[in-house]
Amino acid sequence: MAIESVIPIRVRYYETDGQNRVHHAQYLNYFERGRVELLRDMGHSYRDFEASGFMLVVAEMNIQYHAAAEFDDLLSLRTAVDYTGRVRIKHSYELTRPGDDKAELIVTARTTIACIGANGKLTALPDYMRP
Q: Are strands 54-65 and 3-10 parallel, antiparallel or unpaired?
């Protein structure tokens, strides 16, 4: 069973640089939004997850920039779970700009996210996060 979520993202002015393009670091925020919404689509909120004494931290990130996104673009972010282990989740991301014939690929990325407890040490993911 594929676990994925697709959300729209409208590029806001403050997310752009002097050339009116999305600043490269802003994509990290988009990916975080994608992960939060993916968890919500699975029936859980990140707020409740943290209230249970868990946190998710980025252990590794790999990003490939393919094209520039600009102010006011309406983009589509697909976030997918590629692997779930005892304490880690691997996600992939695909950010596109819809077009008349086909979507233009803007950014692809992969992350490894680790689960930690209130003590800051690795801990097992809750069962509902390990399908």
A: unpaired
Supply the residues annotated as catalytic.
17
pTM equals 0.93
Give the integer Cα–Cα distance in Å for 45 and 9: 19
Burial class (CB in 10 A: 0-12, 13-18, 19+), 104: middle
Pair of tokens at residue 25:
């670091």
Position 131 pLDDT exceeds 80: no
- ∠ CA(42), CA(28), CA(17), 5° rounding? 140
Q: What is the phi-psi region of residue 53: left when phi exceeds 0, alpha when psi lies from -120 to 50, beta otherwise?
A: left
Identity of the residue numbered 56: L
Q: pLDDT of 19-73, one tens digit each?
A: 999 999 999 999 999 999 999 998 999 999 999 999 999 999 999 999 999 999 9
Residue 27 near residue 107 (C-beta atoms within 8 A)? yes
The CATH superfamily label for domain 3-129 reads Hotdog Thioesterase (3.10.129.10)
**Per-domain residue ranges for the chain?**
3-129
